[in-house]
Amino acid sequence: MTRPLLSVRDARFLRGRREILSGVDLDLPQGGIVALLGPSGSGKTTLLRAIAGLERLDGGEISTPSGILDNQTAWVPPNRRGFGLVFQDGALFPHMTAVMNTAFGLNHLAGKARRDEAMIWLDRVGLAHRAHAYPHELSGGEQQRVALARALAPGPRLILLDEPFSSLDRSLRDDLRRSTAKLLAASGISALLVTHDAEEAMEMAETIILMQEGRIVQAGPPEALYARPNSRAAARLLGPANIWTGTVREGGLDSPIGHVEAPDIPDGETAHLIVRPERTRVGSGDTFTLVTRTFRGGAVDLVTFAPDGSEWCARVAPDGLPESERAGLSASPSDVVIVRD
Fold it and tell me: What CDD domains does UniProt report for this protein, alphabetically (predicted)?
């Protein structure tokens, strides 16, 4: 079995009396992109900064196969960890041109070899023609591409990406994250991406780690996490979800969308039903009251209310819209998840 590129065990970090990281464990594999996904304040950026060496843990350990990076008795400074860093604002040196910025970490090379290697990486991010431009002469997207080239040029074991696309407009952000994923795959460099954007995490990463309140709530491939969240918190982190709470009776929940089996939860206990809007069927009937319709090109988002006052959302094709303001909602048992938390 291949050893992890990096391991974190029982990581704890305090800011005053507040615990920002509360016993985090994770393994980063060799190759590919892993995303840390969570809301502001979940601890994801703090964890990335601790891995980078920009913060020191108050407890626990960070290690690689070659040794300890951080624990109570040892600590390796950032410049000796062999990791690349790309921040939200790029953090380019304003007095250096694009090629000078890219060459900054190539200390093992000198003269023409250093410049040639920097130009190779600028070409890989599509900016060889802007080699002599200063950061203030570059657009936001160009600055981020130079920052990426600078981080990748020294051949790091791992590149750490802290919300690198969040300051860009949507179309540019989409283009840059796709090109970044292709470049990382071609270079074979592992990456840890911090983001609060579920779409970005699902598009770029082979593995997503969901964080909330300083803890990991679930981890796995995007498809598995989206389809089978283990809690309401995990479901919400990956996008819109219908969540309905009830009491288990005779092995199931009698919900507004029908009876759903809950064989793993004893009768009398509270459980939560989760189903994604695109998996919620809209058909004939008058049980639900249609409140809003939002056209989104190839789909229409519906908001409805059930007789018990609960809100239910559905996503349908434009030609699948109900003809009246009343409809029936249901879901296949395979598309419904029942959780305790």
Answer: ABC_Carb_Solutes_like
- The tens digit of pLDDT for each residue in 271-303 reads 999 999 999 999 988 899 999 999 998 899 999
Token pair recorded at residue 227: 């389809």
Query: Do residues 171 and 202 touch, judged by C-beta distance below 8 A?
Result: no
> In angstroms, rounded to a whole number, what is the distance separating the alpha carbons of residues 45 and 37?
10
Question: Does residue 163 share a domain with residue 37?
Answer: yes
d(CA 297, CA 338): 31
**Domain coverage including residue 322:** 240-339
Q: Residue 197 region, left (φ>0) first, then alpha (ψ -120 to 50), else beta?
A: beta
pLDDT tens for 194-209 read 999 999 999 999 999 9
- The CA-to-CA distance between both ends of the chain, in Å, stands at 33
Rg of the chain on CA atoms, in Å: 24
The tokens for 251 are: 């092995």
Is the same domain home to 188 and 266? no
Length of the chain measured in residues: 341
121 with 190, same domain: the answer is: yes
pLDDT tens, residue by residue, 51-63: 999 999 999 999 9
Q: How far is CA 231 from CA 154, 203, 219, 341, in A?
A: 41, 22, 12, 5
* C-beta separation of 258 from 314 below 8 A: no
3-class secondary structure, 192: strand
* CB atoms near residue 299 (< 10 Å): 16
Calculate the alpha carbon distances from 303 to 232, 236, 239 in Å.
Answer: 19, 17, 15
SS3 category, 256: coil
Q: Are residues 257 and 213 in the same domain?
A: no
Strands in 189-261 per DSSP E = 190-195, 207-212, 215-220, 242-247, 252-255, 258-261
Q: How far is CA 243 from the centre of its chain?
A: 22
Q: How many CB atoms lie within 10 A of CB 146?
A: 27
d(CA 2, CA 4): 6
Residues facing 218 on adjacent strands: 210
